## 1
Amino acid sequence: MTITPITPADSGIRVAVSTVIFSQRDGRIVLPLVRRTRDPHEGQWALPGGWVDAAENLDATASRTLAETTGLAPSYLEQLYAFGDIGRSPERVVSIVYWALVREDVARAAEQHNVEWFDVSELPELAFDHTQIVDYALWRLRNKVGYSRIAHGFLPSHFTLADLREVYESILGKRLDPANFRRQVENSGTLIPTDDFRTGSHRPARLYRYNHDVELAERGPLPH
Amino acid sequence: MTITPITPADSGIRVAVSTVIFSQRDGRIVLPLVRRTRDPHEGQWALPGGWVDAAENLDATASRTLAETTGLAPSYLEQLYAFGDIGRSPERVVSIVYWALVREDVARAAEQHNVEWFDVSELPELAFDHTQIVDYALWRLRNKVGYSRIAHGFLPSHFTLADLREVYESILGKRLDPANFRRQVENSGTLIPTDDFRTGSHRPARLYRYNHDVELAERGPLPH
DNA sequence: GCAAAAGTGTTGTGATTACACCCATGC
DNA sequence: GCATGGGTGTAATCACAACACTTTTGC
């Protein structure tokens, strides 16, 4: 039996993957952009990404392009949305966009050439529809921080409650009550207190580590 | 200036759109499947869908294939996920999957040939990875019903609180307290009481209509 | 001692739950 | 009348926010 394509394999549609990578730095949310070296939009800043190879899964493409940018594995990676409007590029391109979180220390360790990290509130003009894509990724991030534990994805293995609170505050853009914040996260069962403290200023703060028995976010029946 | 494709236009990857269409019938969630008329998986049941035309937006393709199945416009339509694993089809196919809600009366009015509606708890074996896709769509539906008003998408323009409660109960798979349910939805501001009542058995029940000033679900910065 | 962050205690408020109870209709 | 679903009332509970207060460090 033969397989009969209904459209020719050359359908005029190409498939790309881009990734919105978030990290945290000095209480700000930052993301890496690459400068385009060819048309269209040569010279403009764009999200890191690449074409999907016929023998490579979408997730793998996202991981690969992410590694090529930050040099290391993310602490969280999730598909965001498929953008495929006709006018978003001179040729017809469907972009499967992912979003990722990388820890602050990981991001700092692997700075690359022609990659620059920008504060999300001070982004330059972006190529294609990437401004809209970043807006949507930010919306998802702010939403998801309210009902999951993804904020931990920004932090190194050991951290204080003030560190974690700072992450929440920079994502949500508002101050949180330290006392109530402490109780909320203590009751969530996602943190394991250690016997170590961070000293240096004022009263030492206890260091916590993440309880890896609980997922950063519920993903439903999708394979992880 | 010339555009230089990095991969040839014939990348060996084709782009399709499929849609998981939900409706409600006798307290059960049902969805339409089409029988495949060619290989691969000839004769098996599959989600309605089609190839993306180079001149057609993804949303438009979803609406079109949905119309070809149910014959009418959905009350809710949202992108679900892009499935693109290597092994999911003999050829490399990236499927942008949407999910939709259609009102019970709309679904009943437009029954089509070679389309059959199945109870989601009694699905046959499906082609490709469509079983997994339906599982994920159901998970999203059950989640979203908890924090949005999409359940209204199943109902005709006028309905009783018992109708609405039945929708919630069939989605969530559990009974809800009628008294508390009433207060919750009355306080949500999404319902407008009418002066009409449904009679026929016991005490007549007031008919409500949906307040179209509030969206069925918050979609963030994505264009609707 | 003093400032400041770490950490604890207390109180009020609003949403949710469980359930008792009344109302209006068909039979 | 009586069974049944429509609709109201109410008290207990819980999560959360606001804020006063104590503890422990650096200087």
Note: Residues 160-162, 178-179, 182-183, 201-206 of chain B lie near DNA strand D (CB under 10 Å from a C1').
## 2
Amino acid sequence: MSQEGRKLFLLDAMALIYRAYYALNKNPRITSKGLNTSAILGFANALYDVIRNEKPTHIGVAFDTHAPTVRHEDFSAYKANREAMPEDISTAIPYIMQLIRGFNIPILAVDGYEADDVIGTLAKQAENKGFTVYMMTPDKDFGQLVSDNILQYKPGKPGEDPVIMGVKEVCEKFGVKRPDQVIDMLGLWGDASDNIPGIPGVGEVTARNLLKDFDNVENLIENAEKIDKAGLREKVKTFGQQALMSKQLATIILDVPLTFEEDALKLTPPDINKLQTLFEEIEFRTFAKRVFTDLEKGSPPAGKQAADLFAAAGEPLETIATLSNIDQVPHVYHLADTPEKRKVLVTHLGKSGMFCFDTETTGLDANNVELVGMSFATRPGEAWFVPVPDRYSEAVEIVKEFAGVFADETIGKTGQNMKYDISVLKWYEINVNGSLFDTMIAHYLIEPDMRHNMDFLARTYLNYEPVSIESLIGKKGKNQLSMRSVDPEKLKEYACEDADITLQLRIALEPQLAETDTRALFDEIEMPLVKVLAAMEAEGVKIDSGNLNQFSEQLEKEIAEVEKEIYLLAGEEFNIASPKQLGEIIFDKMQLSDNPKQTKTKQHSTSEDVLQKLINKHPIVQQILDYRSLTKLKSTYVDTLPLLVNPRTGRIHTSYNQAVASTGRLSSNNPNLQNIPIRTERGREIRKAFVPRNDKFVLLSADYSQIELRLIAHISGDEAMQEAFRHGIDIHTATAARIYNIDISEVTKEMRRNAKTVNFGIIYGISAFGLSERLNIPRREAAEIISQYFERFAGIKRYMDEIITFAREHGYVETIKKRRRYLRDINSGNAIVRGFAERNAINAPIQGSSADMIKIAMISIQREFERLKLKSRMIMQVHDELVFDVHQDEVETVKPVIERLMKSAIELSIPVEVEMSTGSNWLEAH
DNA sequence: TACCTCACG
DNA sequence: ACGTACGTGAGGTAG
């Protein structure tokens, strides 16, 4: 082999592992034993891709060691900002080492040095021996080492190509003349992730300009006088030494005591036995198949001869597990595009007992799309596609051929995110009846805090990769095609596959509902709720846009005034909406606080609680807070809501997501109607714009009073709290009397306010620190209050301890209606992570039971409204509140119905109170 | 796209 | 000795 052909790959293990973990862990991979293998798989794929595609002749993987490094000794803050390594990663590392050993690749590590230094040192030595070296890492710092023979190889994101950075690319990226200036850039600019400070206020652009004039940091400091801009000159003078130190920190060490030994790094065939044992343990079936099939085919790493590999493989390949894959199941997908074919299909569906269906549409907004087609499946491997024409009147006629089977109560329906299909079909005069099975929601109950989209479910449960929507209509953006323009044959394959897969998912998921004891919750609450939500969304809510537009103009003026005032007080103009710039102004320039809180990325925090504490330091603070609240109102609500009025209905239609919140709550988006302002005077103006459909109607709001505290009183059985609720005493006053050990009549406003904060804290899983922050009192006092609380409400304390114990034993907690939340970190060795899990253990049953309760109420109210054939409609849900658009003549009918059904949704051992009132807008209805 | 901030319960 | 209250969605900036 020629000298030129020698290719050395040096992998930066930890950087690659982190990257792999965060890229994959959105859909975490967890083995049957509960091991999170996201990091392992991500790294394995990256490693294997490189071996296969780049065919290195030599390879090594560099790790950091636990010993403190030279840099720590120099500068103690270095990397101090780093968060603790996620447990999923630390547990993965031993497996990743096994994997590397399985591939017969040496692991490189030297005490006292970082992986960067090891890579740098070896890269230089190898270069001298005539190798082309690829440093495989996403870390931009490596740019400093790049030369003609040393390149940086940045692995691509899933589905994207890797990027190779040579001298030219590095210089372009950093805007410098030579790669070695990268460290000067980093020295001036800083690097948040490594806690390298740089010069405050100097960003990428300034750093680049300085280097253009002064070449390097040392020279810059020496010639600081020559800087034109006065402000910058001062900064450089003040922080010059810090920049120099930053540069040193960013410099990769090239004289680590180790020698590049060619033979040790030579790529050799993998150790099949080791790999197979590992793959079995971590349940890597697909990856194993890929590796071993390649070996079998002799698509050899590094151009090795296939014979070599077979010799190394040792044992027969039949032992490798084969995968079930629906691609291998023969399937038949039909096109039902004539009246005759449709009639046959309808008859078939009518006799089926249950069918799975899916709709294809021109967009994502169920209340503003056109139907392009429908697909149906009745057994795995067979499906039908019914194209729906462009013209609405024709479309309705065709779709209505299916009205009978859709409406048939005796035919069950299966789908993925059925609320969407049901909503779309409403526009085509279709009513969907019969028992529903929504695979998305089934999975939501089985694994509440994972994702539930079909592609993920298909991969996880069927080991199948569905045809992507992108392959039909392209990536989203202005060039995306319409569903209408897709070739019918292709669309048929895609649509039928969706129905087919969904049906198979039902088969996979149904037993798991039973296993997790969530079948009743599914059948009696979640599935009936799907149609209730579809109805509410279709109803929508009327908005008074004129009112909002007027308000917008008023806000505009106020913002302009505040803005002017802020610039005046600051002595310069800047972007107030940029937390970065704002932080520099009030902390660096104006020095309003010497101890500003830092955000994750080393910036000064400018969040409200921080500013609130500085409010007496300078008048600019209040102005900033005003500016923030004004712009928030304007951009998020006042200017946005009128744009979301649906042209078909003249109303706003939110979408309630039933499979997002891991506690069981709903969430609302497009727009979010669950966070409309109410707490401030100006914010309340927005609620005035939510109005009844016409002057014959009023809005009625009904909300549960203190439902979460009532639930904890009920669940815990705490006598003291139950007694307070039974006597109808204001719960926060009662709490104050108890913790301050005084009579109810002696409770002051402040005591009540404190008690209220404590009560909230209880629901969230209180900590002394959290309480002291919120009450702005010393931690000792907060601790004292908490201990008083637990003494006086011993039942609550007992509940908290018991629920944590339960979680430790079972790995999950559950609500009154058996909704589960799994807490995988509850037995973690990491106190911080465990703390989160413990607070979730306390909160989830309460927040979740409250969600169970209002969901039940919504279903029964909807049923009762239908039974009574009322004109009034339920139109919104805000966690503990229901909003109705009520016909004037029905107000007195509807009130007792709502009250009774909300109160009786779940029977508690204490009274449940519901507050109701009506008005000509949402604010008045409160 | 990630982060920060802030609106609600 | 660690950092900290639970659950969401959305808009802006900056990379």
Note: Residues 332-539 of chain A form a domain with the Nucleotidyltransferase; domain 5 fold (CATH 3.30.420.10).
